[in-house]
Amino acid sequence: MTSDEVLISVRNLKMHFPVHQGAIFQRSRGRIRAVDGISLDIRKGETLGLVGESGCGKSTLGRAILQMHRPTAGEVYFRDMNLTSMQRNRLRRMRRHMQMIFQDPYASLNPRMTVGDIVAEPLIVHNISGGRKRREQVQTLFELVGLNPVFVNRYPHEFSGGQRQRVCVARALALNPDFIVCDEAVAALDVSIQAQIINLLMELQAKLNLTYLFIAHDLSVVRHISDRVAVMYLGKIVELASRQDLYANPRHPYTRILLSSIPVPNPQYEKKRRRELLAGDPPSPASPPKGCNLSTRCPLATAECYKHEPEFREMGRGHWAACFRA
Amino acid sequence: MSVLEVKGLKTQFHTREGVVRAVDDVSFELDQGETLAIVGESGSGKSCTVLSVLQLVQRPPGRIVAGEVRYGGRNLLELSEREMRAVRGKSISMILQDPMTSLNPLLTVATQIGEVLQVHMGLDKRQARRRTTELLRMVGIPEPEMRLDDYPHQLSGGMRQRVMIGIGLACSPNVLIADEPTTALDVTIQAQIIDLIKRLRNEFGMSIIWITHDLGVVAGLADRVMVMYAGQVVEVAPVEQLFREPRHPYTIGLLNCLPRLDIDRAEKLTAIEGLPPVLIGRPAGCPFSPRCPQAVEKCSKQRPDLKPAGPGHRVACWAARL
Question: How does pLDDT run across A95-150, given as a tens digit for each residue?
Fold first, then answer.
């Protein structure tokens, strides 16, 4: 149920991390440009997929949007409220509208708390309910994510990976949020379980009118779940388009190579397939190339690409890309 | 002609909770020059199967309790640790999933590859260094001379995996076992590594056992596929046959639950319901029966054997159409 109403708006967001050297004086030795000037909108009720390889800054972008890192520059608006300039205690109250689901359901649940307490914790922190009402709410949440409420007094280690991820989803839903960042939420799960969680996330979205930022490295999963997809490389968005458009008609060479690198479970298709390969490894985000970030590995790069940075521009309706050669 | 033949292999782990039957009566053969993919989810016993072949299962708690591994006219399971050491890395070598933990962080690239060459090929230090340079070039590391004295942490993930492959290929092994060698890598790097393995396979004519959970990788690389569930082989078939006509409900489920890049989306993925199997104790019957949509009464009582289901195609299921 995507509308045109914008829920989250990101403007020229930068998140740089200083690199220090020396134990005592901590001289600054440059900066890691994890997120380097990103602007995008996330519409109410949509799933925006964010893909890219490890180290491209996709998780940092997700965290910077939620103000888990305070950004170096730029703004993030949630329903026209500027989160980046907001006072701490006001921001704290805003957080109930924005939640996160993490990759590793083993590391993101406290092993010493029962799963019932884990799901109840947001309700306590935000002073929503207590006593019997809280217990009922936890029960409802368990049912909502497909867990049997009789398990509330068990500990995380008694559950499988997929069930733990359901606990994480229940915790994220406890405060009835509008926006959820799913950071590689299904990456650690086996494929048969992964499908269960993807289905659950999609059902919940339809039922509760949720908006997702779905961060993942798996383009097949992103294709399945997203309405629009943004591709990130070395701290920047290189392409953004509707799902159909991006997969059928990728404009940026990086997107094309990324798509051609994904193995498809179909032997005949694989045999006929011509694969484009990207040369070498990605450069360090501490010292990105001078012109286009991809220029050092791009098969299409020309002299211009090494000198100037391409502008992120609209190439078709709602289809944006940053490339001179696209 | 098969180079490696595994018969009735059983490996168990004795834990406080009970006996884990990680590999439970597994048999297969590997032909000369063939690439066999072993597919399964975590805990299916695919890694443990190949670790047992090379007797690398840690004991205790692990123990190979039954079976035969025939290679070069001998049963490898009867060899002493010393004899086994002459086989590992020379005739049968292995590439592991995570190059960061399987390379020694304190030794340089040249030392780690050189060690294999000195032990198995009897080269001296200088010769080993020269051969190491050639190997690094072969696996696609640019300016190999500059990389010889690097430590693993100075290399990227893709480069480290190339070094691992270099170690695996150092003695031109007859059989290469690759245990999820690309799972920890990004897709563009994975594509580079698979491309490399295909090229080297054609050059050396070696037989490969490729362990993975990624059916996409299998489709592009394997000749034959063996699907494992809960320590047992549930289906074996030539790759095209398996993808065209999967017979076991688990294989069918696995193929259906994948989000695909080549087919447009159905509104809902067909998930395999239920939980992953518990390996402790031996449930009677087929281990997949609690999750199986086609299960009949017999399935929970009696374990099905692998039965022929077409040329080179075998399946262990009571309900499958044969």
Answer: 999 999 998 888 899 999 999 999 999 999 998 888 899 999 999 999 999 999 99
What's the CA angle centered on B301, arms B297 and B307, to 5 degrees? Answer: 90
- What is the nearest CA distance from A263 to chain B, expressed in angstroms? 4
Whether A82 has its CB under 8 Å from any CB of chain B: the answer is no
- Confirm or reject contact between B194 and chain A (CB < 8 A): yes
Across A114-136, b (16+ Cβ under 10 Å) vs e yields: bbbebbbebbeeeebeeeeebee
- Pick from A104, A192, A242, A255 the residue to mutate for testing the B interface (most B CBs within 10 Å): A192
Q: What is the CA radius of gyration of chain A?
A: 21
Q: Does the distance separating the beta carbons of B186 and A54 come in below 8 Å?
A: yes
ipTM comes to 0.81
